[in-house]
Amino acid sequence: MEQTVSVDKIVEMTGDLPPMPNVAAKVMEMMANPMTDGRSMQKFISTDQALASKILKIANSALYSFSRDITSLSHAISIIGFNTITSLVIASSTKNAFFKGKMGLQDKMIWEHSLASAFGCRMLAKSALGAGKTEEAFLCGLLHDIGKVILSRKLGDSYSAIVQEAYNTKASFFELEQKTFGFTHSEVGSLVAKKWKLPAVIEECIEFHHKPEEAQNAKVIVQIVTALNHICSKVGYGLVVDKDIELMEIEIIQKFFNNENTLNDFIEKLVATVEEQKRLFE
Ligand SMILES: [Fe+2]
Ligand SMILES: [Fe+2]
To answer: Which of 15, 34, 177, 194 has the most CB atoms around its CB within 10 Å?
Structure first.
């Protein structure tokens, strides 16, 4: 029987788990309130000049603006929508909180993986679950490896050592974590999700993205996150890279893609999006 790792053991090794970034916490709280509308979100974003100008910059990118000139937050919200603006604010504040200052290579790879997963999950959710689920999927992709962010920051060199070992030996990163520390980034991530009171669907993605068969209420969205993990490792976004992987042989990929052509079109669009968007988040 699988052993449940103790919270104490993780906290003993990593120190206290960090709080949710302030801006993200406030926006999540606003999202959960049915009275929140575009106007209140706009008011909140305007109180932070740096955030407001970053959101405008992103809103004016090719992905959202379709060559329209977006000059104000209210315009941005009316063009790209309240939910998408909300995801962008959370992505931007998460990036600022966890990847401050000059990023090392390992941080860069984790951030790039989170961003690629977020955009990829949004794209895949649109076709698999419909337009209403796209932003939920974006946040699931963005936050699914939050445990890695924490472990990389807290454990430093001993985490880098297993990144290196996984790279050299092609061993499963997830299993190496388990063997070396006695717990994985999924377990650390799900403690963080509980501490931050993240929505249940995000918590499930964090907990089960390496064993999607165990997902309970959010099976499809967890499978989408798992699919993006395989795609990212093929493309080279993240700590786990396997360029030789045959994606179409993986069952979960077959579930979302009929053939190699649709998969390749998806990858091409994803890479173009990530390459454009990652510059805007800097
Ligand atoms: Fe993961
Ligand atoms: Fe991942």
So the answer is: 177
Report the distance separating Cα 126 and Cα 160, nearest Å. 35
CA of 240 to the centre of ligand 1 (A): 9
Domain boundaries, the chain: 21-98, 100-282
pLDDT tens track for 233-281: 999 999 988 899 999 999 999 999 999 999 999 999 999 999 999 999 8
Stretches where the chain sits below pLDDT 70 are: 1-7
Which parts of 99-171 fold into alpha helices (H)? 105-129, 134-143, 146-155, 157-169
For the entire predicted model, the pTM comes to 0.94
Buried b (16+ CB within 10 A) or exposed e, 127-159: ebeeeebbbbbbbbbbbbbbbbbbbbbbbeeeb
Q: How far is the CA of 207 from the centre of ligand 2 (A)?
A: 11
Kindly report the CATH class assigned to 100-282.
Answer: mainly alpha
